[in-house]
Design a protein that fits this description.
- The protein is an all-alpha fold.
- The chain has one domain: Up-down Bundle (Ferritin).
- It is built from 5 helices and no strands.
């Protein structure tokens, strides 16, 4: 086991989440709470634990498919800037465009990771499902506002 690679794989996705949370937390009570949201919008407290778990699974997937790390890092960039666009810039429409890019990247990563290590693809399934749901949620918020 390559511990240095494992630590990098686990820490980098969490750092992307940390960047996103910086822009998210500061606008929850001043902007997001006042938006119209669909009936299926989860409570705000769900998002933090869900993302910590998803970033952890993404990190393990990255470790198992390290050969495809460049693709993963490009994808992680789009993941990190979603919160900046949605919360920081308060642009749900542009955030929706960005989340579709993320969604497509996840599919692409799952295909590429499959060729390296099938478990890496299985670990991305919860992320794919969550981003699919988040895409619908993002679109709904944009549409309602």
């Amino acid at each position: 086991m390559n511990y240095k690679r494992l630590i990098i794989s686990l820490v980098l996705p969490q750092l992307a989440g940390l960047v996103g949370s910086f822009f998210t937390v500061s606008t929850i009570s001043t902007w997001y709470d006042f938006l119209q949201k669909p009936s299926f919008n989860p409570p705000s407290w769900v998002f933090g634990p869900a993302w910590v778990l998803l970033y952890f699974l993404m990190g393990i997937a990255l470790y198992l498919a390290w050969e495809k790390r460049f693709l993963f890092f490009v994808h992680l960039f789009f993941n990190a800037i979603w919160s900046i666009i949605f919360f920081g810039l308060q642009q749900p429409g542009w955030a929706f465009v960005n989340i579709i890019i993320i969604w497509l990247f996840i599919i692409f990563l799952m295909i590429k990771f499959w060729k390296v290590n099938r478990w890496s693809t299985y670990l991305l399934i919860p992320y794919f499902l969550w981003v699919s749901f988040a895409s619908v949620l993002n679109f709904s918020i944009w549409y309602l506002n």
